[in-house]
């Protein structure tokens, strides 16, 4: 309440005094100090200070204070990101980037913009696009002499390569960083580097080297208060020893990590990872009872990690199968089957996004090469023309004028023809692109329907096996399920590209109907794509009745009259 009253009084004062400000340098300095002090207050709450930041941007613009305007745009971008308004965040970041180009002395702020854009892309699993912005940010950090920030950005680059499954690149970069005094003098950066190198070696199945780096990191932070990180390192070392077949040491390290995590409920994520590894170890030691306990703990404590949950379901199903507990076997395999299908869907979406990112980068590199070559050619032509004019001006000025006029006239006509040709080509490319997108969407829908039919058939057989306690049929169902998973691993799943087809549509819906939930917005987007109730139900894995009821509630929330169609209302309301 104290801050709110302060804000209101200060803004009223600034608005009333604004015409008087900046009449001289002293007044300008005073107003800039006011703006900077207000920014410090706004920084304390970048979740709910959107309106305040917009006012500060306006004040900075009126005061001819570009640094304040850029600062406001960067903070507003963070505000939009924190409130899941990604399109709006990218919009203000682009606006800030354009403003910085007008004022080169503000180039340092580009580092924050590029870094924030990279964070957004990383959260969207678009790691290749994120790398592009991290590299740009790193270049500016080095240019500005901000060595520590440059190293932090470099670490983010390593994390992207790890997420992309490129451990060799991580190790190549790490060889350069391991000798850098900036990293070696900063304990947090050094610890992060050791952890990345251990993870890279683990991904390459070089478990001995992974243990060495993780052990070095453990030695580095053992006396710190980073309980979660210490337990994570011990758990990782235990998993590496398990892969090497040294189960006794693996169990010792895993239990040591478990002891650290006891009575620490805020570290449930680390506890879940530890339970999963202990389950693997006890399973390898042929101790099914202990393995069951830890796998079930991993499921209970790690509901946000579907990969580990799927692994636990599968292992529990296999353990109960060995114990000939068929009801529990069927139960866990059915849960595994349901979850694994959604995991493959997400995995293929990620692969599609990564491939898309690679293509985008290649296209941008190709365009940059063309621009560089064009620039070289133009530079060469300009130099040649200058020399030519100097040599001929002495005796042939009149003739040169005529020739040059003819040349420029032809060049102008040729350029006009080229522009018209380019426009025609662009139009054809756009038409082909739209047609291919439609064909791709239809093909994907057919693929999804076929896959759902196969899964329904498997589920029907599984239900029959459970009902009649038919072990042979249950084994046959398991084989069919494995074949189904193998057959779906290379299929392309429907890509979540609604934002690319209708840029800014999510922000538009949020602005027009702020009371809508995330599920309501999802139904709006599906109707915007002209999907039927049946198609929407298949995509959302719910019944058609559930979709009908959701649309009915949506219509009630939006206060749409009974005689007006919800689809028609959305088409008219949302561009």
Mean pLDDT: 76
**What profile does the largest beta sheet have?**
none
List the helices and strands in order: HHHHHHHHHHHHHHHHHHHHHHHHH
- Helix % is over 70%
Which residues form runs of ≥5 with pLDDT under 50?
Answer: 1-24, 488-495
Individual helix count: 25
**Given the C-alpha coordinates, what overall shape results?**
globular
Explain what this protein looks like in three dimensions.
The protein has helices spanning 2-17, 25-42, 50-62, 66-82, 86-102, 108-123, 127-144, 147-163, 167-177, 181-184, 187-203, 207-221, 227-244, 247-261, 268-284, 288-301, 306-322, 326-468, 471-488, 498-501, 505-512, 518-528, 533-540, 544-557, 566-573. Among the domains are: 376-488; 498-573, Arc Repressor Mutant, subunit A. The protein is globular, with a radius of gyration of 31 Å. The chain is built from 25 helices and no strands. α4 (66-82) packs antiparallel against α5 (86-102) and α12 (207-221) packs antiparallel against α13. With 575 residues, the chain is mainly α.
